[in-house]
Structures are given as structure tokens and as C-alpha cells.
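Thread amino acids onto this structure.
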């Protein structure tokens, strides 16, 4: 009999959700397929919160508690300037041995993670592939990753659902794992899965 794993996500904005939800799904699947599991695990779709972390803090807290009621692992996303808000949510009473929170905070912005694998843009319809050789290698050092992203996806519509979800589906997870903030998130996610008895 398989054991379900229901992930949840509360993010800063819709554009973050478009990238992070499918990326979380892929990364969790990669964890589960590469490990010697104690049980068969049925990975469910990521449940995305109805509100965003930039909303009123009381509403955010209530939404996180709602997610915690139906999920096993809840990812709390903020950009680096708001890390303290995400960290405060770790102290809620809803966390126990059956549900764990994991803070998901890129060093600058989520868009920096989208730049980690230039080859992934070849799968984005209309992307400016001529810009790919000039993409930075150290994506966390990019001062404004949104500007760089716009240079590549000019003509695709940067807020286009297909663009961000395509990057999430095609980005090389090994290249992302070389990004320090992503690596930190991977380690914390792995610890949460171990604490829940999945790994």
C-alpha cells in the first residue's frame, strides 16, 4: 500500500507559483526516485495556496494553517528581503510530526533560479536564443534577474504561463543544485522528508 505525499506551496506572487509549483513536483519526484524508500510513496500534485505571502499577515497565517491541515510538507516562499516573514511562520503551532514547513527563499529573486540553465530556454517558444551564450554563470550574483530574463524571453511574454512552467519542466536540476540558495532549500527539504519518514 502506498503512502501519499501532499506538498503545499504559498508563494509571493502568481509568476513565482507558475515556476515553483512544477519545479517542486519535479524535485520531490527526483528525491523519491533516487532514494531507498521505506514505503511506496504516491506523490500528489502541489496544492497552491489561494492567497500570496504578500497579503495581510493574519490572512497568510490562516492560509498556511489551512495548507498544513491537508498537506505533509508546506513550502513558504518569499524573496530574500522578506525572509524574516517566512521564518516567523515556522513558529506556528500547526507544525508537528505529520506536517513540516520548509522556507523557500532565493538569494535575490525566483527569476535568478530561472537563469540557472541556459539550455532550458531552448524549450521556450519564442525565446531569444542568441542571448543564451551571454547568460551569467553565477545567477545569484545577478543584480536584477528579471531584467536578464526579459532579454531572453522578449517575444514570449514574460508573465506567460507557458514560459515559466516550461522552464520549470526543463531546467537541469543538477545545475540548479549548484546554486547555493537552491542547495540550501534542497537540504532543508530532504531533512523535512526524513523527519516525516519518507526518506
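Threaded sequence (199 positions):
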Amino acid at each position: 500500500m502506498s503512502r501519499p505525499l501532499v506538498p503545499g506551496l504559498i508563494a509571493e506572487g502568481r509568476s513565482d507559483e507558475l515556476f515553483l509549483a512544477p519545479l517542486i513536483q519535479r524535485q520531490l519526484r527526483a528525491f523519491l526516485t533516487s532514494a531507498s524508500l521505506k514505503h511506496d510513496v504516491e506523490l500528489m500534485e502541489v496544492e497552491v495556496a489561494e492567497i500570496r505571502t504578500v497579503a495581510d499577515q493574519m490572512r497568510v497565517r490562516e492560509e498556511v494553517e489551512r495548507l498544513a491541515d491537508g498537506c505533509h510538507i508546506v513550502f513558504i516562499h518569499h524573496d530574500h528581503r522578506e525572509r524574516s516573514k517566512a521564518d516567523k511562520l515556522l513558529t506556528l503551532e500547526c507544525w508537528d510530526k505529520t506536517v513540516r514547513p520548509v522556507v523557500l527563499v532565493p538569494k535575490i529573486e525566483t527569476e535568478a533560479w530561472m537563469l540557472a540553465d541556459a539550455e532550458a530556454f531552448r524549450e521556450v517558444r519564442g525565446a531569444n536564443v542568441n542571448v543564451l551564450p551571454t547568460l551569467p554563470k553565477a545567477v545569484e550574483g545577478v543584480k536584477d534577474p528579471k531584467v536578464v530574463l526579459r532579454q531572453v524571453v522578449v517575444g514570449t511574454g514574460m508573465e506567460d504561463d507557458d514560459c515559466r512552467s516550461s522552464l520549470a519542466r526543463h531546467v537541469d536540476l543538477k545545475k540548479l543544485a549548484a546554486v547555493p540558495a537552491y542547495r540550501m532549500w534542497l537540504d532543508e527539504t530532504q531533512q523535512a522528508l526524513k523527519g516525516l519518514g519518507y526518506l
